[in-house]
Write a structure and sequence with these properties.
This protein is α+β, with helices and mostly antiparallel strands and about 270 residues long. Helices cover about 35% and strands about 20% of the residues. The longest helix has 18 residues, at about 250-265.
């Protein structure tokens, strides 16, 4: 089956499910059902953008309806029991909560508990991740933000990758005093990912308040430590989690090792 257009694939998923779905789930179902083989680097963002554009363009005539933040349904499946999130309600939310500071998305992407052994620690190490299975790899080696180093029991170090990008900062820790003390790392990145899989380095945080800083610090701690009594994700945390991908060099090395072992047995 050839790739459906994004909008066609979204409609097909919602037709089959007959209920409201979060845009991230819609993207995952499109991949799972094979409606698109070519997903690009940001399939979840693409789904969200397609639906939002249709709603903004066609208003009440759009085939889509928004029922909650990030949740959409085909308008024909709306019933009296479905709460439709109208523009008026959204405007009111923005005024009352500053729309969580208009979802500044200070943290635009993040990775949790990535495996140190899946990275090839060359001079400039690649940090490869995907938004979901089937998506195109994104290289986060030049990302900036906050990172944490973990051992098997706890977080042992928190640092920032600002003057040096994430890849370089992590590589430094493979040969400094922390070298033998960590096996996993988490990171929270400021640069957004564009649809081509690159990092958008055009940032403007001029309007950030002290409250915003407090909110984002709280969010990072909640996401990384996962305290049992915190039920919310954290304010100003709208970033998308990326799943780690093994470095091609490591795959190649393991394949060569396997061939050597098989050859030795002959």
């Amino acid at each position: 089956m050839s790739d459906l257009k994004w909008k066609e694939a979204i409609v097909k998923v919602l037709e089959e499910e007959k209920k409201a779905l979060h845009y991230t789930v819609i993207a995952e179902l499109i991949a799972e059902k094979g409606y698109r083989k070519s997903l690009g680097a940001t399939p979840q963002d693409t789904v969200s953008a397609n639906i939002t554009t249709d709603i903004n363009t066609n208003k009440e005539k759009s085939i889509f309806a928004k029922v909650d933040r990030g949740y959409y349904i085909l308008r024909k499946f709306l019933d009296d029991g479905t709460h439709l999130l109208t523009e008026e309600i959204e405007i009111k939310n923005k005024k009352s909560k500053k729309a969580s500071s208009e979802k500044l998305r200070i943290i635009n992407s993040f990775g949790l508990y990535w495996n140190r052994n899946l990275v090839h620690w060359k001079t400039t190490p690649d940090l490869l991740g995907i938004q979901q299975i089937g998506a195109t790899n994104v290289n986060f080696k030049n990302q900036i933000g906050i990172y944490l180093l973990h051992d098997s029991r706890e977080t042992i170090y928190v640092g920032q990758a600002i003057e040096q990008p994430l890849g370089q900062r992590l590589r430094n820790h493979t040969s400094d005093r922390l070298s033998g003390r960590w096996d996993r790392f988490s990171w929270f990145g400021f640069y957004p990912v564009n649809d081509k899989g690159g990092l958008n380095k055009d940032l403007n945080f001029d309007d950030i308040t002290i409250q915003d800083f407090g909110d984002i610090l709280e969010a990072i701690l909640i996401e990384s430590i996962e305290p049992r009594q915190n039920r919310k994700q954290g304010n100003l945390f709208a970033g998308i989690e990326y799943l780690q991908q093994e470095a091609p060099e490591i795959k190649k090395r393991m394949k060569e090792q396997l061939i050597r072992e098989l050859t030795d047995k002959l």
